[in-house]
Amino acid sequence: MALPLSELPAEAIREVRSRKGLAFLLFLGVSSLVLAAGFLWPYKYASEVVIFVDDSNIIRPLMEGRAVTTGISDRASAAAELLGTRDVLTGVARDTSIFGEEAATLSEDRLEGRIAMLRSNMSIRTRQDNYFSIGFSSQSQIKAFKIAQRLGQAFIEENSDRRRQESRSAYNFIDKQVKSYERQIGEVETRLQRFLSDNVDGTEEEANSRMARLRGEQELAELELEELQSRQGSLQEQLNNIQPTLQGQGEDAYQQRILAMEERLDSLRLQYHDSYPDITILKEQLAELRRQRDKAQQGGVQPENRTGETISNPVYQDVRSQLVSTRTDIQTIETRIRSLGRLMTEQERRMQRIQANKAEYSELTRDMAVNKEIYNDLLKRREKARVSMHLDIEGQGLNYQINETAQYPRAPSGPKFEMFALSGLLLGIVAPFGAAIGWAQVDPRVRCREQIEEELDMLVLEQIPAVRTPYEKRRDRRTTSTLLVLAFIAAASYIGIAVARYLGVI
User: Fold this and answer.
1) Do 288 and 319 belong to one domain?
2) Which of 16, 58, 275, 315 meets the CB 3.0–4.6 Å disulfide criterion with 260?
């Protein structure tokens, strides 16, 4: 039958009083076990290093756009990843200042076990915006302190080495690319130079300009040829209308030549202006003949008149000489036109060669332009990488600093011995009553009238109290006194042992 809750305290006290010895043994056993657990509990001491991320020094705004500073987005995870690497932990595990001289000669199995121990006891957590901590916990205070301090130093050293290596690798890569493009540009320049040496036809613009000039000269020569041919026809017609010889009729020879020239001049004026060269020459010849005639008349020399004598017509000879000169000029112009035609044919073949080489020349110049553009961009990037590398070497840019060094742990982390001692005393006192309550709940016997009334729905008229004899009362008092003394001694011993442990005596 279940005991009513209102009766549980009274029944628990009655059960403890009826079983004083068992309650005392339970108190002694529980408190001793908790105190022993306090002695045997593996207390761990924790020490940590606080790292400050300095990413806002004066170098950053000064070098903005000219150098790239190394950055880390998630500092805590990056630190955990870095410190969790085997190389870093191997260096810590073999540190003789922490683990003694034997650390330098560790076997592979012991080294693996120590690395696993370091990983399991290491902790990294963020604190504020630019702060995070690297901690280590160990049962040894001195090891917790030294390992935490060593981990902080290892992180800063490894991070600095990695940033320097990253910057140097970036610079070496870009420098290698720059040299590669230098070789490519040199090869393209050599090919372009060889192409220009092998193809001396010039550019398309030059060829078009020369072709236009030759075509213009040919057109002018053809126009001049037409003029000369027209002049030839005119001279030939004049020559056909002039007698080769003159028959003397008693007139003065000078006068005949003047008349012939005037006749020819009148004929030319019908076709040309007075500025025409032949007209100008005839005017000069007429003026000269008149001067010679006047001079002969003034000197008293009379030209001989020979009737019936045949003489050469000077006009005919003059026109004939002009016709021969004109024919010579025509042949010269025709030779010039043929030469211009030959040059134009050669120029057309040159244009064809230029068109055939135009694609190759465009490809060479395009490759040269693209390679030079990339090369100039790589030159700028190489200089930025050089400055970035020097920044990382000199510790500028993103920099990690130890804001708070590891402190020697004075007290263990987690539950302390005082908590075990106090908990043991309290649990020892509470344990008998807890056991009594539990026993009262599972005991099938009837302990009070309320059980019968509630379970059987029967009215209990009277309850007979328990009666003890005087002997039983005396025996109970002696037992109680003895247990109280033993309890006092046990409590005093318990407190004494706890105080001695707290003070470090034991």
Assistant:
1) yes
2) 315
